UniProtKB/TrEMBL annotation:
<dbReference type="GO" id="GO:0008168">
    <property type="term" value="F:methyltransferase activity"/>
</dbReference>
<protein>
    <submittedName>
        <fullName>Class I SAM-dependent rRNA methyltransferase</fullName>
    </submittedName>
</protein>
<feature type="compositionally biased region" description="Basic residues">
    <location>
        <begin position="1"/>
        <end position="13"/>
    </location>
</feature>
<feature type="compositionally biased region" description="Low complexity">
    <location>
        <begin position="17"/>
        <end position="36"/>
    </location>
</feature>
<dbReference type="Pfam" id="PF03602">
    <property type="entry name" value="Cons_hypoth95"/>
</dbReference>
<keyword id="KW-0808">Transferase</keyword>
<dbReference type="InterPro" id="IPR013780">
    <property type="entry name" value="Glyco_hydro_b"/>
</dbReference>
<keyword id="KW-0489">Methyltransferase</keyword>
<dbReference type="InterPro" id="IPR029063">
    <property type="entry name" value="SAM-dependent_MTases_sf"/>
</dbReference>
<feature type="region of interest" description="Disordered">
    <location>
        <begin position="1"/>
        <end position="56"/>
    </location>
</feature>
<dbReference type="GO" id="GO:0032259">
    <property type="term" value="P:methylation"/>
</dbReference>
Length: 358
């Protein structure tokens, strides 16, 4: 099980990778759009289970891939231990619960006491709680940066701060493939939250569609677009249930070159639609495959706070991308304590599986 925490200066590290060279020849892509044969779930109204197994050669695979993010000027994991973590987000030091920190803190107590904000409350990953500001009362937001993109950090009641810095490694990978495509690229960012990935994609030159169920989160994302000075970039902001949106895009024949999906374990669409990751993920990945363009570049799935290994989402992604060629890379996103101040221990935040074109 992984939890979420943050950081940025990203360096990708592959540990003991296992690779195979079973790339599908380009012709093997005729299985791209499997005949729909879906059952409707009574709970979600969305198509689940009984998906036909796509034909075609499985993509190459590379795993485990451990993508690591380390500290930089905008963000650092300074220390962790005793079930807590101490991070720096822009100007502020923040203390939050971290169930994986089974060890003792390495920095002296005085470093922890210098925190600007402490989250207290439910130690559950998604539990509610309150922020305490020991030095001076802070506003809800503060200026943050990611790789030169300005946005607002936020103290939210679910302990999150408006950005998941561990995603930076995926964002850099995405930006590189947009920039090197040499053609217009369409990106779909599902479960897009405060929109940092959408801004990274737009800055790299993509036309972006951002989907989230929360009107509030989409409002924050729009604010971030202004804050970043990227208001002239083509971003469609959509408040919608992600599954419904994908199904509708399939019916409309709209297609994307890159799809990012970072679903929670449990969530609700704006009309109360229920999202359960273990129920909905197979249909979601199948639906996303159906709306990939004829020259797709990537599909990136992250998952967190679930009782599963990356092997599970790896096998799902490989099965669903059969016949597409390319490679499926899977593993964990980790954040390492800043080695210049802390002990250099790693905290895993999420599992991921990404398909990348050959
Ligand atoms: C953890 S956030 C994703 C973080 C984001 N990828 C990032 O890096 O900033 C999960 C998001 O999923 C959204 N969500 C939950 N259920 C949803 C649903 N059924 N359809 C669309 N979005 C949903 C939430 O509103 C939330 O913003």
């Amino acid at each position: 099980m992984t939890s979420r925490s943050g950081n940025r200066r990203k360096r990708d590290k592959t540990r003991s990778p296992r690779t195979t060279a079973k790339a599908a020849p380009p012709k093997a892509r005729q299985a791209k759009k499997p005949t729909p044969n879906l059952e409707k779930s009574a709970d979600t109204g969305s198509a689940t289970r009984r998906l036909p197994r796509p034909d075609g050669v499985l993509p190459e695979e590379a795993l485990p891939l451990i993508l690591e993010v380390a500290g930089n000027a905008d963000y650092a994991l300074l220390d962790s231990g005793d079930g807590l973590k101490l991070e720096r987000y822009g100007p502020y030091r923040v203390v939050r619960p971290e169930g994986q920190a089974l060890w003792r803190p390495a920095l002296p107590q005085s470093e922890w006491e210098a925190a600007d904000a402490i989250f207290t409350g439910d130690t559950d990953e998604e539990g509610m709680g309150r922020w305490r500001f020991p030095k001076a009362a802070l506003g809800e937001t503060w200026p943050m940066k990611h790789d030169g993109i300005n946005f607002l950090g936020r103290f939210t009641s679910f302990r999150h701060v408006g950005v998941f810095p561990e995603q930076a490694t995926h964002w850099r990978h995405m930006a590189e493939s947009i920039e090197s495509a040499g053609r217009p690229v369409r990106v779909l960012n599902l479960f897009g939250y405060t929109g940092i990935a959408s801004l990274v994609a737009a800055r790299a030159g993509a036309e972006v569609t951002h989907v989230d169920a929360s009107k509030k989160a989409v409002g924050w994302a729009r604010e971030n677009q202004l804050m970043a000075g990227l208001e002239d970039k083509p971003i469609r902001w959509i408040v919608e249930d992600a599954m419904k949106f994908v199904e509708r895009e399939g019916r409309r024949g709209n297609q994307y070159d890159i799809i990012l999906l970072d679903p929670p374990a449990f969530g609700r669409g704006p009309k109360g639609e229920v999202w359960q990751l273990f129920e909905g993920l197979p249909s979601m990945v199948a639906g996303c495959r159906d709306i990939l363009s004829d020259k797709p570049l990537a599909m990136v799935l992250t998952a967190y706070s679930i009782r599963a290994s990356f092997y599970a989402i790896h096998a799902l992604m490989r099965e669903r991308m059969a016949g597409m060629g390319g490679r499926v890379e899977s593993g964990e996103l980790i954040i390492r304590e800043d080695e210049t101040v802390g002990a250099g221990r790693a905290i895993s935040t999420s599992l991921f599986s990404r398909w990348v074109a050959a």
